Amino acid sequence: MAALLSPEELENSRVAYELIRLKLRVPIIHYLTDIHSKPLRLRWRQLHTESPPNGKLPDSVRSFISDVMSVANLSSFVALYNRLDDGDGKSVTASMLLRAWKMHDRVGSGDLDINAAWYAIRDVRAKIVVWQRCPHCQAGFIYEPNESHARSCPFCALSRRR
Question: Please, which domain of life does this record's source organism belong to (predicted)?
C-alpha cells in the first residue's frame, strides 16, 4: 500500500511539477524541494516528451547577462521576489520562486528564463552580485562591474533609448 503524503508533501510535489513544466533544471528543483532526482527526471520526460537537459549548470547569473534588457528583466524579477518574500530574506524557496514567477509573467515583464531568475535571486541573496539602488530613478538593479551591461541602471539606460 502506498504511503499517504502529508499536505506539505503534496504541496511540495505540486510546486515541483509546476517548476518542471516551466523547465527549471532538475538539480535546482531537487535542491529546492528535496525530491529525489529520479522521479523529477521521469516527470520531465512525461511532460516534455524529451529527457531533461544534462550538463554543467552555470556558476552564476553572470552567464545570463547578455544585454541591458536581460539585466532589466533579471532585476525586475529579483525586485518582485524580494517584495513578495515573507521569509528570512536569505533562502530561496520553491513556492516563493513559483509565486514570483507567476506574478512576473502576469505583469508581462519581458522574456526571462526561470533558470536565470533563480540564479539572479540566489546570487543577489548570497552577495555573489551586488544589489544596488539607482540614484536617479531609485530602482533596485543587479550591479556587476565585470559585465559591461550591468555597470549602471538598466532602467535608466532603456528610458534614454526611447
Answer: Bacteria
Rounded Cα distance, 88 and 117, in Å: 19
CA distance 21 to 15: 10
Grid cell 513559483 in the structure block, residue: 98
User: How much is the pTM?
Assistant: 0.90
Cα–Cα separations (whole angstroms), residue 21 to 24, 42, 45, 82: 8, 12, 10, 23
Per-residue pLDDT 10s for the chain (162 aa) are 567 778 888 899 999 999 999 999 999 999 999 999 999 999 999 999 999 998 899 999 999 999 999 999 999 999 999 999 876 777 889 999 999 999 998 887 668 999 999 999 999 999 999 999 999 999 999 999 988 888 999 999 999 876
Q: Alpha helices, DSSP H only, in the chain?
A: 7-21, 26-33, 37-48, 68-84, 94-107, 114-125, 154-161
Give the side-chain half-sphere CA count within 13 A for 35: 25
